[in-house]
Design brief:
By secondary structure, the chain is α/β, with parallel strands linked by helices. It has one domain (2-208). The protein has helices at 2-16, 160-165, 181-191, and strands spanning 21-22, 38-48, 57-65, 69-72, 79-81, 85-94, 97-109, 115-120, 124-128, 133-135, 138-145, 171-178, 201-202, 207-208. Strands 1, 3, 4, 7, 8, 9 and 14 form a 7-stranded mixed sheet that branches. Strands 2, 5, 6, 10, 11, 12 and 13 form a 7-stranded mixed sheet that branches. It is globular.
């Protein structure tokens, strides 16, 4: 059963952008260097207020700019509160330059064959400094019911039953960036011990466009 769910996630991931890279940090990592690329820390809190039974799980981040890449995201959240939200500690390895974190692809399921997909249109600008570890702010995003035709849909129409039941087709994402440096960095350091003695810059440059 679990294999089928993961397979669906992988297929969706490949269809969206093509999987190319993993996150910069691995749980429990103790040796962290920035002599090559810099590391960007971007926590994400995601929920579904339209149908809490379908809380989105992150699959992939698409990043464009100095070096275009798609980043596979850990399917296991840092914290998952059933029927409420999923919390992720994302990390990207990037060379210095200007980037846009354009979108986050997601899925939600209620059983192995009942899978729905959605996309967070983040379109957030980010400036990466040389040889650095940067915290760029916490992304808080949730699905709500659409009340205006000008609001983009959280997900497509097909498969119809899954996309409508989940609230993705008739819902839209609401996103904001928050500065929660102290609490977020404490979480990152608990998950990735190698960050404990390293300087982490606060550059809240994530700006939704």
């Amino acid at each position: 059963m679990r294999r089928l769910g993961l397979l669906a996630a992988l297929v969706f991931c490949l269809q969206v952008t093509g999987c190319t890279k993993d996150m910069a940090l691995i749980k429990g990592q103790t040796d962290i260097v920035t002599s090559g690329n810099s590391i960007v820390l971007m926590p994400v809190n995601i929920s579904n207020k339209s149908n809490p039974g379908f809380t989105p799980c992150l699959l992939q981040a698409k990043i464009t700019g100095a070096e275009n890449q798609s980043v596979n995201l850990d399917v296991t959240p840092f914290k998952a509160v059933e029927l409420d939200h999923n919390e992720y500690l994302l990390s990207f390895s990037l060379s210095p330059g200007q980037y846009t974190v354009s979108e986050l692809s997601c899925m939600a399921k209620a059983g192995p064959f009942f899978v729905a997909t959605c996309m967070v249109p983040l379109n957030a600008a980010i400036t990466v400094n040389p040889n650095s570890i940067q915290y760029v702010g916490q992304v808080n995003t949730y699905v709500k019911d659409r009340t205006d035709d000008n609001e983009g849909r959280a997900g497509g129409l097909f498969p119809i039953l899954q996309q409508t039941t989940s609230g993705f087709f008739n819902g839209t994402f609401v996103t904001k960036i928050e500065d929660r440096y102290e609490e977020d960095i404490a979480k990152y350091r608990s998950e990735f011990p190698g960050l404990e003695k390293l300087k982490i810059e606060k550059t809240i440059s994530l700006t939704p466009r």
